Amino acid sequence: MMWKTFKYSLLVLMIILFQVSVLPLMGDWIQSVNIVLLVLILVYLTKGLPLTLMLALILGPILDLYHMIFFPGVTICLILALLIVDAFFSKFFTNKSFYSFLSMILLAVFCYGTLLRLLFGLQTIITAGQNYPINQYFTAFGQFAVEVLAVNFICGTILFMLFYFFSDNFKSVILRD
Amino acid sequence: MLGTPKKIKLSLAALIIIVLIFIFHLIGIIRPIENVVLAAIRPFQHGVYGLSQSIRRTYDEWRVDYDLKTRVRELEDQNLNNLAKVSEFELLKEEVDFLRGQLDLAGNNGWELQVAAVIGASQDDNTQTVIIDRGAKSQIEKDMPVIINNGVIVGKVVEVFDYTAIVRLLNDHASQVAATVRNQDGTVGVVQGEFGLGVKMDLIPENEEVAIGDLVITSGLEEKVPRGLVIGLIENVFGSDEDIFKTATVKLPIDFTKLNMISVIIKR
Hints:
The complex is a heterodimer of chains A (177) and B (268). Chain A has helices spanning 2-22, 35-47, 49-66, 73-92, 98-128, 135-166. By secondary structure, chain A is mostly helical. Chain A has one domain. Chain B has helices spanning 5-27, 31-103, 105-109, and strands at residues 112-121, 129-132, 145-148, 152-160, 165-169, 176-181, 188-193, 199-205, 215-218, 230-238, 245-251, 261-267. In chain B, the strands form two sheets. Chain B has a six-stranded antiparallel beta barrel. Chain B has a six-stranded antiparallel β-barrel with strand order 6-7-8-11-10-9. Chain B starts with a helix and ends with a strand. Chains A and B meet through helix 1, helix 3, helix 4, helix 5 and helix 6 of A and helix 1, helix 2 and strand 1 of B.
């Protein structure tokens, strides 16, 4: 139990440090990597929804502290994105394959990005008034969406490969008589 | 959407937790916990941010080296044309350096500065912010201006915790700074960010002459922002004769992605 708690605390700390202090510095496209969602999807596939939601409820509020969106906007977006992914996974995917993992990452990143912008747009309208050019948000999102999805697709592939080689969680099981 | 009763229960539990977090945050009950979490992460951020900067610098150097090799030929062609521009730039630089010297912020104006290190940055393209390692315990308050190089404003403090604070950079879409142009009219306006792409100066009266290369500084109309902090140089001016106001884009003198040490003016 102690070891598990330590392990997950370390995971949370690493993710926060990566998301807040490493990725934003790494240039145009690397900063589009959403390490939080990548790890959460990985945890979802290997450990299930309850633990993933718990991790999201720890990571979300901490990320919220560093974010300009209203508290706990990031947490709400994370949880909703995960629930949407879970609904899709339950209905359309049958196994923990590479393709389902990547599809879920793309879906999660898209949902998270859209929800975050919707909430941010709403907040902007309320705080900055009706005259604010809110449509610029969505134009900007359109421009970045493809890049964000592509970058997370590549990083998801790398993460899957790493996990595939160092863990048995994704390996196929052959049933014999 | 969720299917099984167990998942519905889980979702409801998550929702309740979010609502509770929101309420507790709103009334400030969890503020001490937030401060403890941020204080616990801060030492790690110092190391990691420094390491990230080193990696970024190495990468930048490598990229610059690579780019230089491929662009030498192009630059040679452009060199002659650029000479006139370089000369103009040098003159402007002299002007900026002179003005900065004149301002000599901390020393001559009696302002009190709090030096802080940048330990994090915004997580997405919605916002342009940086996290610094000083907060309320170092007398930092909301709306205080953040500067570098003894007088170039980079943004304002928007959120303060005990040991950390969040700074909204000038190029953030929500950033607004009262500014004035160093021209004959002493044009005043508001400098606003443009989604991380740059900054523009709005509300410039149509009848006032603003030229490319004019220096833009803070006007001092805001309570905590002193007059004379350098914002940048006018890059382009937009607006027709029918408009009441003109808009100008402002070229920032610094690259916000390379911020390392900054100062917060804690007392004017």
